[in-house]
Amino acid sequence: MRQLMAAALVLLGAMSAVGSSRPVAKVQLPCESGYQDLSPSGTQLVVHCKDRSVRVVSVPEGTERHVFTAGQHANSFLYSQDGSWLAVGFEDGTVEVVPSQGTAPSKRWKPSARRIDQMYFFPDAKTLVVGPVDSPAQVWGFADTPALLATLPFEFGGLNACSVSPDGKTLVAAGDDTVLRWYDTATWKKTREYNGFLLETFALTFTPDGKRVLAGGADARITVMDAATAKPLRQMPPEAGSYVVEIDLLGDKQRAATVYLDDAGEKPPHALLWDIATVKSAALNSDAPLTCGTVVGGKLWVCSADGKTLTMSQYD
Amino acid sequence: MDFTRRELLERCAAFGAATLVTSMPLSALATEWEAAEKKQPTPFCELGPFYKREAPHSSMMRVPGDSGMPLAVSGVVYNTRGEIVPNAKVEIWQTNSDGHYDIEGYRYRAVLEPGAKGSYTVESVMPGHYPTRVCQHVHYLTTAPGHKTLITQLYFATDPVFDGDPDKNFTRDPLITSRELVRPVVIKGDPKQIVAAVNFDLVMETL
Fold first, then answer.
1. How far is it, in rounded angstroms, from Cα A256 to Cα A218?
2. Superfamily for the B70-204 domain
3. ipTM of this predicted complex?
């Protein structure tokens, strides 16, 4: 799964958007890098160096804020939705939550002995879902000393994807066991589940109004689900021979940038921009090899690295 | 009626069915016997992204005309005390010989039911390599009442990636958690119909 997620990061970077673009920043990278993670505020970049170290730099200054050496075996990185925290998952099962700004201390704890593959921040940026490989998911509050709030079991395997409703009241988790489970975050009781998928789900996202959940995975399609009933409402056509690894809703709340990996890992990844209402898609074509991308202020930002110089562009 | 090894030894000695020709006390002998029979749990190896529910119950995954080296994998499901685990369910899945998983259907996916004897056999082909994984492998998901679910993968000592030395080179695939998961391959059958035979026992931990 680590490889899958790493590929997803590359892939998200490998897409380019429909429409016009304008450069927003140039950053000098501290190393040769094939892919990066851009913070949702567009002000920080996690640079995955070819020497296997990971360096966190500010945008556009390029000032190095943190270094994770190759020997530290950092495995997964995730920014909170407001960009204020960066969570880092390590191969030995440790999690570190690092403030993106200011001088607040980092929080570091070890939820598991297994590699941390998945992480997900609640909208409040005070709660983190942690997914050790092939293990139950754990929900941690980290506003003070990190405290375990809940453990979310699966029939087998671990967490593949997770999303929390905009009001923070509902969490949906997708497990290796192919089941989607709904939880009430006040009681941590499971309220609903959907077991109609035969294959694993790798991407989940609530719509901004909290009424729908978009799910995608090995079945190569987006399924739009009713968040209240956990029932599927409609599906986008599948992309044969591939699987969905990421779904990001753009600011118009109508279009979802969707990243697909090739089943056999032979063909290059591709991305489509789906209009969820009309069920129409547009291919996202790329002229240059791009190395990162995320939604910043509702707009799609992508990066292209040439040597140690990275150019960041915004697509409208 | 089930006896522990210790009870069996004591009863055999008491009824004269066994004569102990050793200076070792009976209790120590039983302890040694139990220790010798104990098995280490099969190492965990991650599930991966291509699991599919509701695979067919079948021990024949290969069909006539399939490309690739025929493969026969067999084994027994034990617990860590060395006892057979009855009524286990073993789900396996792998790529075809070209390194492709069947996502649409259920080729090279099966559910095996070892039954009371705990033994299983499955006929397949040697899985292929594919770009995002280093080694050929077969996925296993084994469940049984009263036992921890076992998620692991089987690898082959003949895999070219190991350059003939899996002891030294098994870490070339970063997902291989233990040398123990790389199993010897024995070529069987007549020259016109050879089969790569592999033994892969599964050892489950009790809850």
1. 17
2. Aromatic compound dioxygenase (2.60.130.10)
3. 0.84
